[in-house]
Amino acid sequence: MTSTLLDEALEAHGGLQAWRSAVRIHARVRSGGLLVRTRVPGNRFADYRITVDVHEPRTVIDPFPVDEQRGVFENGIVRIESHDGHVLSSRANPRPAFFGRSGLRRNFRWDPLDSVYFAGYAMWNYLTTPYLLTRDDVEVDEAGTWHEGGETWRRLNATFPAHIHTHSPRQSFYFDASGRLRRHDYVAEVVGHWARAAHYCTEPVHAGGLVFQTRRRVYPIGPGNRPLPAPTLVSMQLSDLRVDTG
């Protein structure tokens, strides 16, 4: 689905044709923050390389959870495999495990397959936005302006269908005057239905004809839709970006 704001955002991030031509995105990721430190023992996401498919929900995290292994998220199915492709463990339907009785342990600690699911769908979403919002099954509507930090941003609300693996069905994206993504709001449901988050995106970098925000910080949302100054739930720094085209 499209809108005038989405059209402008696509143009600011490389243009629709460049996104359609892109096949995979590669990057180095360094991450931290309270959520990563508490849910992922030893912060095995401290420094890794990632590959996401642009047109299909697929993410490869390497190395993870240890050297010579990698985590793979593929359309909701997750696995840990060796570098020669031998599957060491897998989970066919990982999302329901975060809820109900099985979710009690996950309130404190994630196992490697939990971690691959969360990071896999999240990074696929992050790195393919705003192109992700052009899907026919994603509904978007412009939601007026938002004032923050002395700037005026325009807000785009998106509603995702249940079959797309993402944080929550309803999310908001904020774009500055140039059309660049500056903030992304969602409820991280696998963390908790209370986990309202504001994800800030800065330091744009050009790679393969596309534009990516390489510095990302996630904070809790407080009163008035304003971010709380602490804690930093997730921090990410992306580098070495590369795009494969078809």
Describe this structure in words.
- By secondary structure, the protein is α+β, with helices and mostly antiparallel strands.
- It has one domain: Lipoprotein localisation LolA/LolB/LppX (outer membrane lipoprotein receptor (LolB), chain A, Clam), CATH 2.50.20.
- Helix content is 17%, strand content 43%.
- A 13-stranded antiparallel beta sheet has the order 6-5-4-3-2-1-13-12-11-10-9-8-7.
- The longest helix is centred in the middle third of the chain and has 17 residues.
- The chain is globular and about 45 Å long.
- It starts with a helix and ends with a strand.
What's this entry about, in short?
The chain is built from 5 helices and 13 strands. It is an alpha+beta fold and 246 residues long.
Question: Which keywords apply here?
Answer:
globular; 246 residues; 5 helices; 13 strands; alpha+beta; 13-stranded antiparallel sheet
Taken as a percent bin, the fraction of beta residues is 35-45%
CATH class, named Mainly Beta
Helix content: 10-25%
Summed over residues and divided by their number, the pLDDT gives a mean of: 96
Number of helices: 5
